[in-house]
Amino acid sequence: MVTAQVSLPLPVLPEGWSAPSDFKAIGTLSTPNQRNLEPVGPHFLAHARRKRHKRTFSEDERIQAQENVKKVEDEDGDDISEPENELMLGRDAKDWKNQDHYAVLGLSKHRYRATDSQIKRAHRKKVLRHHPDKRAATGSSEDDSFFKCIQKAHEILTDPVKRRQYDSVDEGANVDPPGKKAAAKSPNAFYKLWGPVFESEGRFSKVQPVPLLGNDKSTKEDVELFYNFWFNFESWRSFEYQDEDVPDDNENRDQKRHVERKNNNARKKKKTEDTARLRQLVDDCLAGDERIKKFKKEARAGKDKRRLDREAEEKRVLEEAKKAKEEKDRLLKEKEEAEKAEKAEGKKAKEAAKNAAKKNKRVLKGSVKDANYLLPKGEEAGAKRIDEVLGDVEAVMGKIDNEELAALAGKLSGLKVGEEIGGVWKEEVQRLEGIGKLKAGEVKVLVS
């Protein structure tokens, strides 16, 4: 334990002080006790540290500064920790427009995705390492140029307007499009290489979220949505960050207007070039997208199928019409042949009936001849008798049809006796008179 002895002079008594004679005690002091006092506090700890390690004040401050920087780095972790190269440390602070602000703060892998908290932590980390006072304490001969770069990067990235202007032209966040050979190496290479390209370009979109490229299992609707979005892309990119500085003096107004017009024209030109670049990028991606080829093939296959189905339907309709026509022609032909056959049969039957009628008439006429024209046997029939009998026979035959004629001929066939033949004729005449086909007295000889 350390024992400290403090020796302090007593204060000088004022003039006219009469304590020994005028002093009146109103109490007594307690009995003193001896106590051990232990020194504490940051200053004592610093003193003890210096004594223990045998350091001077400047040496201890330098070492403590290094340890604080290391402690901050360890607390921040690797998310905002990037190695610093000599080229970066030797940057000219005056050339701040061409510096990579994210790289200066160690945020190269974050860039436009870096949060305000990450920017703040990265700035604190860089300041602790590169502040002129800290560098002087560590004995470094480095000037404060890089520290000014750090401060400028912090100024740009913590101002929303300035940061948006810088993000508009930050080429470090761009992803180069792949070549045709690289994208065609494997089925998934196209989506793996082109996906980050459109993710990077999507940061400039006024419309969020941006549709994803997808993969080989994406639907036709999703793919069409993706390409329609990029063919009608609305970009907020403005290129103000690359403007030429406008003079601030009021005396040179013409020069100021000239620079402003020049900047506006340059922005429009860069905007037009960027739009053309993006359109070419989308065209290149579309040309190598196997899904488009697959969808076109499916569309052609569907179109061919519809055409084949239509042609098959037309062929079927034509065949059915042909079959219907053939069936109609066949039926018409059969009908005509049937009618022709029927007509032939009718004609044949008619001819047969006519021939039968002639035969039956001959039988009828022959019957009266065999009956000696209905005269007694041995009596010769004269011409008059023959004419009268045959006239009656003609009269009867004219009143009856072929069936009745055949029936009458059937009755007369085989008869040779005159009385029997006459009886048949008499019955027939009476029958015809009974049904009104013959008038009474119209036939005289056959019934006499």
Can you describe what's shown?
The chain is an all-alpha fold. It is built from 17 helices and no strands. It has helices at residues 19-22, 42-53, 57-76, 86-89, 101-104, 116-130, 132-137, 145-158, 160-168, 180-183, 189-201, 220-231, 253-288, 290-370, 383-399, 402-412, 418-435. It is rod-shaped, with a radius of gyration of 68 Å. The relative contact order is 0.04. The mean pLDDT is 84.
Shape: rod-shaped
What class would the helix/strand composition place it in?
mainly alpha
Measured between the Cα atoms of the first and last residue, the distance is: 193 Å
Low-confidence stretches: none
| Sheet with most strands | none
Mean pLDDT: 84
Number of strands: 0
Helix content: 55-70%
- By DSSP (H or I, 4+ residues per run), the number of helices equals 17
Rg calculated over all Cα atoms: 68 Å
Tag the structure with descriptive keywords.
single chain, 448 residues, mainly alpha, 17 helices, 62% helix, 0% strand, rod-shaped
